[in-house]
Amino acid sequence: MGCDRIAASALGLLLAAGSWPLPSLAFAHAEVGDPVPRAELPALGGGSAPLVVPGKVSLFVFFRPSQDRSLETLRHLAALEKEFAGKPVYFAAVASDAAPAAEVRATAREAGIRMTVLLDRGDALYGELGVRLHPVVGIADAQGRLAAYQPYASVNHAEVMRARIRRALGEIDDAELARVLDPPSAAVSIDAERAAAGRELKLGRMLLERKSYDKALESARRALARDRSLAAAHLLAGQALAGLGRCDEARRELDEALRLDPGNAAAAEARRACGG
Predict the structure, then answer these.
(1) 3-182 belongs to which CATH class?
(2) Which residue in 119, 139, 178, 274 is deepest, having the highest Cβ count within 10 Å?
(3) pTM of the entire predicted model
(4) Is 170 left (phi over 0), alpha (psi -120 to 50) or beta?
(5) Per-residue confidence (pLDDT) for residue 240, from 0 to 100
């Protein structure tokens, strides 16, 4: 595990515990209230575009192409773009110009973002702000001051960005923002369990594709230990059991997957293959 990933993991735990914000782990050279550079950067599609737009709430994200955390963050932002369409909110994504343009373009396309993608020439903006982690999101108010920032966090990520934007727009007050930044511990625990189950499912599907059925089954069991209501985990368990020739057990898992998600075509197909 590299230093960047270790730092991001530690940061996620701190954020989940309510330690927010942490300037030294986001932008080393900028704090909330500081003016954001009025930079014009080359755009991926040609020409140039601004980092922030005066008179609008400006959200900008520094990301790395082909990085899972960056892709997840961009997907959240793609949804927020649609949600805040028609409101005075400007979105921009920033990548180093050292990254291959094809990878930057592919990541933006996979995430489904419509925002302008800016290329930081010689990493000048990275250096000016002191960007330490990727991804990290900055939000500037209508006066161009840094209103908030959000490094990647596995818990409550999209909700916090939404609340930060709404606070900058004046749609919510500080008290409502605080409730989002520091949710009840039970809700955090549930979200963390679901996120962990999702990671097990992702690993299990990879193992299933490699026909490592026993290990795929272990991943499915670990996911179910965190959330028994996951139809996808029951499906994975059923597929792995079928691969191991344990058809009676597979049918039970697949039946449960269909009970939880009657429209699950993959579970229905696997159930038919199992017979009985």
Answers:
(1) alpha beta
(2) 139
(3) 0.60
(4) left
(5) 93
